[in-house]
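Q: Could you fold this chain for me?
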Amino acid sequence: MTGFLFELTFFLAAPVWFLMILAPGWRVTERVAASPLTVLPLLALWAVLAAPVLPELWTAVSSPDIDTFRELAALANGAGAIWAQIIAWDLLLGQWMYREGRRLDVSPLLMAPLLLLTILLSPIALPLFLAVRAWRARATDHALPGGS
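A: Sure. Below is the predicted structure, expressed as structure tokens.
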């Protein structure tokens, strides 16, 4: 059952990613991406996975060290809970990036690979997006009347 829940985690997030990457201009996509409620199913799944390992989880987060965390991750439910938390965080991050990209008129042809990279390796995607965001913000400021 834990394996199924682990796999279900991504499939709960996938429709939102699908919309942001493949239908970025659709009004439904904008409404979905604006809602933080998209992560609630993932957090519910996190709770189901975390409940059986709550003592180990609490130990790992309340007095973190690498061995305690390794022990938590070695448990199927521990790894599943960590995965659900990562997927939820990445989804919220992706939604913010999508909305910022739309606000700054970043091309969907640039945003799609950035969002795909966020799914796979958000610690690489976020700094890249922040650079694009700074570049677009400067370009927008210069385009305004009275801009430097």
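A (continued): Residues 108-143 form the longest helix (36 residues).
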